Amino acid sequence: MGLNKVKIKIKKGDLVQVISGAKQERGGDRGKQGKVLRVFPETNRVLVEGINRVTKHTKAGQSQGGTKTGGIETVEAAIHISNVAVVDPSTKKPTRIGYRTESVERDGRTRNVRIRVAKSSGKDLS
Predict the structure, then answer these.
(1) Which of 32, 70, 74 is nearest to 51 (CA)?
(2) pTM attached to this predicted model
(3) Which of 35, 51, 93, 97 is the most buried if burial means most Cβ atoms within 10 Å?
């Protein structure tokens, strides 16, 4: 398929903020922050904790223990990468991501390592 290959700078475990969509007073998620649970590079989407909650109807059945399953539950749905931004660790505001290369000596060999950096403050991102 003709999917555009985009460099994904958001990783699992990052703290991100929703930067687009409906405002919170209108029931949306814009401005909310959450941790990235999973990244889907093939569809350019991320799953964020507590963001984009949808109601899912699951079919009634029984589990191994005999307990009833099914009903209506709320789960997080994936959100597009362009709608979230990584939060700067120092200012707690959304920022863009840059990279800095550093040569690190490990086991007697020097290797170049790319370190993710917040563009606004210059602080390292974990």
Answers:
(1) 32
(2) 0.79
(3) 51
